[in-house]
Amino acid sequence: MTPTAYKLAPHPSQMRLASPESHIAKRAPFTEHHIWVTKYADGELFPAGFYTNQSRGTAGGLKEWVERRDSVENEDVVLWHTFALTHIPRVEDYPVMPVETHMISLKPANFFNENPAMDVPQSTQAVNQSTYVEQCCR
After folding, report:
1. Does the structure show a pLDDT above 90 at 38?
2. Smaller CB count within 10 Å for the chain: N or C?
3. Rounded-to-integer distance, Cα 96 and Cα 34, Å
4. pTM for the whole structure
Protein backbone atom coordinates (compact mmCIF):
# COMPACT_ATOMS: atom_id res chain seq x y z
CA MET A 1 0.00 0.00 0.00
CA THR A 2 1.17 3.52 -0.75
CA PRO A 3 1.71 5.78 2.29
CA THR A 4 -0.86 8.42 3.15
CA ALA A 5 0.49 11.87 2.33
CA TYR A 6 -0.04 15.13 0.55
CA LYS A 7 1.26 15.53 -2.98
CA LEU A 8 2.96 18.80 -3.90
CA ALA A 9 1.78 19.87 -7.33
CA PRO A 10 3.97 22.82 -8.32
CA HIS A 11 3.14 24.94 -11.32
CA PRO A 12 5.84 25.58 -13.93
CA SER A 13 8.31 28.31 -13.07
CA GLN A 14 11.68 29.49 -14.32
CA MET A 15 14.76 28.73 -12.25
CA ARG A 16 17.62 31.16 -11.75
CA LEU A 17 19.24 32.27 -15.00
CA ALA A 18 22.29 33.85 -13.36
CA SER A 19 25.66 32.14 -13.66
CA PRO A 20 26.66 29.82 -10.78
CA GLU A 21 29.63 32.16 -10.24
CA SER A 22 27.44 35.27 -9.93
CA HIS A 23 26.96 37.20 -6.71
CA ILE A 24 23.26 36.29 -6.52
CA ALA A 25 23.99 32.57 -6.99
CA LYS A 26 26.47 32.67 -4.11
CA ARG A 27 23.96 34.43 -1.87
CA ALA A 28 21.08 32.12 -2.78
CA PRO A 29 22.41 28.65 -3.66
CA PHE A 30 18.99 27.16 -2.88
CA THR A 31 17.94 28.43 -6.33
CA GLU A 32 19.71 25.47 -7.98
CA HIS A 33 16.68 23.16 -7.65
CA HIS A 34 12.89 23.39 -7.45
CA ILE A 35 12.52 20.89 -4.59
CA TRP A 36 14.68 20.25 -1.54
CA VAL A 37 13.97 17.96 1.43
CA THR A 38 15.72 18.28 4.79
CA LYS A 39 15.32 16.66 8.15
CA TYR A 40 13.50 19.04 10.50
CA ALA A 41 15.83 20.97 12.80
CA ASP A 42 15.03 23.86 15.11
CA GLY A 43 16.36 27.18 13.86
CA GLU A 44 16.63 26.17 10.19
CA LEU A 45 14.17 28.76 8.95
CA PHE A 46 15.77 30.71 6.13
CA PRO A 47 16.82 28.85 2.96
CA ALA A 48 19.38 31.53 2.12
CA GLY A 49 20.72 31.68 5.69
CA PHE A 50 20.86 34.66 8.00
CA TYR A 51 21.46 38.20 6.71
CA THR A 52 21.34 37.21 3.05
CA ASN A 53 21.51 40.75 1.70
CA GLN A 54 24.71 41.38 3.63
CA SER A 55 26.42 38.06 2.94
CA ARG A 56 29.17 37.27 0.49
CA GLY A 57 27.88 33.74 0.01
CA THR A 58 28.76 32.52 3.49
CA ALA A 59 25.35 32.90 5.18
CA GLY A 60 24.71 29.15 5.27
CA GLY A 61 21.24 27.90 4.53
CA LEU A 62 19.52 25.17 2.61
CA LYS A 63 22.37 23.91 0.44
CA GLU A 64 24.58 23.58 3.53
CA TRP A 65 21.85 21.65 5.40
CA VAL A 66 21.38 19.23 2.49
CA GLU A 67 25.12 18.60 2.25
CA ARG A 68 25.00 17.12 5.79
CA ARG A 69 23.16 14.17 4.23
CA ASP A 70 20.91 13.62 7.25
CA SER A 71 18.65 10.59 6.88
CA VAL A 72 15.03 11.61 6.26
CA GLU A 73 13.53 8.12 6.42
CA ASN A 74 10.89 7.93 9.18
CA GLU A 75 11.81 11.45 10.33
CA ASP A 76 10.00 14.76 10.44
CA VAL A 77 10.97 16.49 7.23
CA VAL A 78 10.71 19.93 5.68
CA LEU A 79 9.91 20.21 1.99
CA TRP A 80 11.32 23.38 0.46
CA HIS A 81 9.83 24.52 -2.85
CA THR A 82 11.70 27.15 -4.85
CA PHE A 83 9.70 29.04 -7.43
CA ALA A 84 9.82 32.08 -9.74
CA LEU A 85 13.22 33.51 -8.99
CA THR A 86 13.78 34.95 -12.44
CA HIS A 87 11.85 38.00 -13.46
CA ILE A 88 12.18 39.64 -16.86
CA PRO A 89 11.38 43.30 -16.05
CA ARG A 90 8.92 45.34 -18.06
CA VAL A 91 8.78 49.12 -18.30
CA GLU A 92 5.69 49.05 -16.08
CA ASP A 93 7.61 47.31 -13.29
CA TYR A 94 9.92 50.25 -12.57
CA PRO A 95 10.43 51.40 -9.85
CA VAL A 96 8.14 48.91 -8.07
CA MET A 97 6.84 45.67 -9.54
CA PRO A 98 3.03 45.72 -9.18
CA VAL A 99 2.32 42.00 -8.63
CA GLU A 100 3.64 38.52 -9.29
CA THR A 101 1.30 35.59 -8.67
CA HIS A 102 2.56 32.14 -7.70
CA MET A 103 0.54 29.01 -7.04
CA ILE A 104 1.21 25.60 -5.59
CA SER A 105 -1.24 22.89 -4.69
CA LEU A 106 -1.11 20.36 -1.89
CA LYS A 107 -3.36 17.47 -2.86
CA PRO A 108 -4.33 14.61 -0.52
CA ALA A 109 -3.03 11.25 -1.73
CA ASN A 110 -3.97 7.73 -0.55
CA PHE A 111 -6.18 8.71 2.37
CA PHE A 112 -8.66 5.99 1.39
CA ASN A 113 -8.26 2.44 0.10
CA GLU A 114 -11.19 3.03 -2.25
CA ASN A 115 -13.49 5.87 -3.22
CA PRO A 116 -15.86 6.34 -0.24
CA ALA A 117 -18.60 7.73 -2.50
CA MET A 118 -18.88 4.57 -4.61
CA ASP A 119 -21.21 2.66 -2.27
CA VAL A 120 -23.54 5.50 -1.27
CA PRO A 121 -27.11 4.22 -1.80
CA GLN A 122 -29.35 5.99 -4.29
CA SER A 123 -31.66 8.59 -2.78
CA THR A 124 -35.28 7.60 -2.18
CA GLN A 125 -36.50 11.18 -1.72
CA ALA A 126 -38.84 12.42 -4.43
CA VAL A 127 -37.29 15.88 -4.18
CA ASN A 128 -34.06 14.58 -5.69
CA GLN A 129 -35.76 12.77 -8.59
CA SER A 130 -35.40 14.24 -12.05
CA THR A 131 -38.70 15.26 -13.62
CA TYR A 132 -39.52 16.68 -17.02
CA VAL A 133 -41.11 20.15 -17.02
CA GLU A 134 -42.73 21.46 -20.19
CA GLN A 135 -41.94 25.00 -21.19
CA CYS A 136 -44.76 27.35 -20.36
CA CYS A 137 -43.72 30.40 -22.28
CA ARG A 138 -42.34 31.29 -25.65
Report:
1. yes
2. C
3. 26
4. 0.65
